[in-house]
Amino acid sequence: MKKLVKDLGLPVEKIHAYKNGCMLYWNDDVDLEYCNFCGDARYKPARGRDLHRKKSSYAILRYLPLTPRLQRLYSSKVIAEHMMWHATHQTEEGSMCHPSDIEVWKHLDRMYPNFAEELRNVRLGLCIDGFVPHCQYGRTYSFWSVIITPYNPLPSMCMSSKYMFMTMVIPGPSNPKCLIDVHLNR
Ligand SMILES: [Zn+2]
Questions:
Q1: Which end of the chain has fewer CB atoms surrounding its CB within 10 Å, N or C?
Q2: What number of other Cβ atoms are within 10 A of residue 28's Cβ?
Q3: Which InterPro entries does the record match to this protein (predicted)?
Q4: Is 147 helix (H, G, I), strand (E, B) or coil?
């Protein structure tokens, strides 16, 4: 599966994270070995046979870069046309069939006219939920998945699983709560 996804040009990045979610070890901090905020170690202590193995991080964030996935939408002429549906469809006055019919969307268009002018610019929705791996209900460990969906195309497309991109899997063991921002800044 990893090889198949790689050949499709859809990479998966593994980014070391601090076990309590204080920070990610990436960009300027990629070589740090201790958390900038609480000073805890990045790697698990090596014991016995582990001494010769690669160091193991307490937590790993799986990041599936969004940009190449969005670019692939424009590699199909049909889908590329649907990506402009939000601006080209007609909705009856007073009814709502798509997020582009609501006032907030129109307000954003007025606030950022340069962005709105290019109809192919992508509007995204983001949702997050926790899940317990291997159906181990009652266990304390959970992952948090971040799913992003483009709101440009017609409702039947942007609400289908094909257009919902799993972008991040945030490691547990518990709800990251407000520290979820540390991961979303990625
Ligand atoms: Zn920390």
A1: N
A2: 6
A3: Transposase_21
A4: strand
The 10s digit of each residue's pLDDT in 25-66 is 888 888 888 888 888 888 888 776 666 677 888 888 889 989
Residues sharing a CB contact under 8 Å with residue 51, sequence separation 6 or more, in sequence order: none
- How does residue 88 score in pLDDT terms, banded at 50, 70 and 90? very high
Cα distance between residue 171 and residue 132, in whole Å: 11
Distance (angstroms) between ligand 1 centre and the Cα of 17 equals: 9
> Mapping DSSP to helix (H, G, I), strand (E, B) and coil, where does residue 28 land?
helix
* Lowest-pLDDT range of 4-8, 20-24, 48-52, 158-162: 48-52
Q: What is the rounded average pLDDT of the residues 170-177? A: 78
Q: How far is the CA of 58 from the centre of ligand 1 (A)?
A: 12
Distance 164 CA to ligand 1 centre (A): 32
Cα(19) to ligand 1 centroid in Å equals: 8
Give the global pTM: 0.80
pLDDT of residue 124: 93
3-class secondary structure, 36: coil
Tokens describing residue 80: 């590329």
Say how many Å lie between the CA of residue 39 and the centre of ligand 1. 6
Give the sign of the dihedral formed by CA 78, CA 81, CA 83, CA 86.
Answer: negative
